[in-house]
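We modelled each protein-ligand pair independently. The example shown here corresponds to the zinc ion entry; the chain sequence is given first, followed by the ligand as SMILES.
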Amino acid sequence: MSLVTTKEMFAKAYEGHYSIGAFNVDDIDIMQGVLDGAASVNAPVIIAVSEGAYKFMRPDFVVAAARAAAENYDIPVALHLDHGKDMGIIKNCVDIGFTSVMIDASAYDFEENIRITKEVVEYAHAKGVVVESELGAIAGIEDDIVVDDKYGQFTHPDDAVEFVKRTGIDSLAIAIGTAHGAYKFKPGQKPQLRFDILEEIQERLPGFPLVLHGASSVPQDRLEIFNQYGGQLPAAIGIPTDMLREASEKAVCKINVGTDIRVCYFGEIRRQMALKPEKFDGRSFLEPARNAVAEMVAKRITEVFGSNDKA
Ligand SMILES: [Zn+2]
């Protein structure tokens, strides 16, 4: 198959009450791990590339690798720019073959966010590329939550409805209590997702695909390996998988996973290098790491997202 947009994936995920995993990749090796994992459970998948990864991996290589992957695996594969902020990068992604882009203008005020998002939608839609945008603040652990009404800093349903109507976007990332990074919640802190807000947005925007960012679960066994072999990530917990599953059954059609991939891949590399000090060929470290990513991706898809056997 060639690369596809997320349109059909999301329509089916919405109807079928599951979600599609969007996995952040930092290099082509990780990309292959993600695809191996998704293909092993016959799941459609989104390859997510941040602006940093786009620069590091080099744009043309990213697209060439993703296209080759789509042709080599018998599952739908979308190539997505994650958190696009630079208009030049976003437009270039549209031009060179990404099938989906995210414009993140959530740091601006509402009207400016709409203006910038509309510019991206016009450019992308003209070339058959779909657009995700973000509304509301997706917190980090240190952010103080100032609650001025029941919606607090989360995405207000009124805003979501107006934003979607006025911008013409294809999917919307909402803030309901997830957080970016490895330290989402301190041990002892109880993660809560605001399902009441999610349901209200879903009611007001029936059929419209929603997206959760900052939704890694930080698998403790993988965090342990990372730290056991010299890593220094503080104890942290992510979003409990049962909450992600519940969100998947509702209007959430795409769940982003970044932290889990990194903890898994680089933890395994640390372990392999420690266990095999006599080795110096890259494959002896990278192959188990790539396989660890594939295993984690397959597990996440079958146990949480429910997109297995939906290719
Ligand atoms: Zn994000």
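Residues 141-147 have pLDDT under 50 and may be disordered.
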